[in-house]
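1st attempt posting a full record on here, be nice pls
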Amino acid sequence: MNKNLNKENLGILLQAKEVISKIDDTQFSFNDSPLFLSSAGMHFRHVLDFYTAFSEGYKNKEIDYDKRERNEEVAIKREVCSGEIVKIISFLNSIENIDMGSAVTIITIEGITGNSSRAESTIGRELQFLLSHTVHHYAIIAMILKIQGAQLPQYFGIAQSTIEFYNY
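the predicted structure (as tokens):
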């Protein structure tokens, strides 16, 4: 495995632990419909569900991101969410030396038709996807938490390419 990519995934998960440790349960689970339909906790859970789907699919080389647990406890209790992050970090550390080019099949349900489809990918490409997907959701989490007055790390929810483009 490209250790830099592994390091980036570990780093982005540690960002979540840091943010979760700086907010309270109310901020974590606050949902202000109609401004936003999901809480910060729901977005963290969603991100972790994708990492868990990756770790489960990794075993048999078939990753189904639509087959998620959606454990409500992860979305409403910070300590449960933090525990899930620790599990995923442990998994990523356990595959530190895997070949990034290892083939995997991605299974997904198409949005309009509901049909299932399959596509070929690699472990490395899926780790890149997880990073991008996570930053996207962190941006939403940042908005939800900032509306509530939470203080977040300076670059939380901002893609590295954006940071470099704007010379933040």
